[in-house]
Amino acid sequence: MLEVNVRGYSRGIPIVRTQKAMRQHPGESLLVLVDTGWAKDDITMKQYGK
Predict the structure, then answer these.
(1) Is 45 strand, coil or helix?
(2) Total-model pTM
């Protein structure tokens, strides 16, 4: 499992770093570490197209 640590980044950067990790490691499980609710929500909404 690949760990993606996006704690401490400003809005938008967690999405970009998560997408980059997904492109570089297709099919691999990711553990995305966030420190704010908006980062979790942004990544989840982007992933599922909501």
Answers:
(1) helix
(2) 0.82
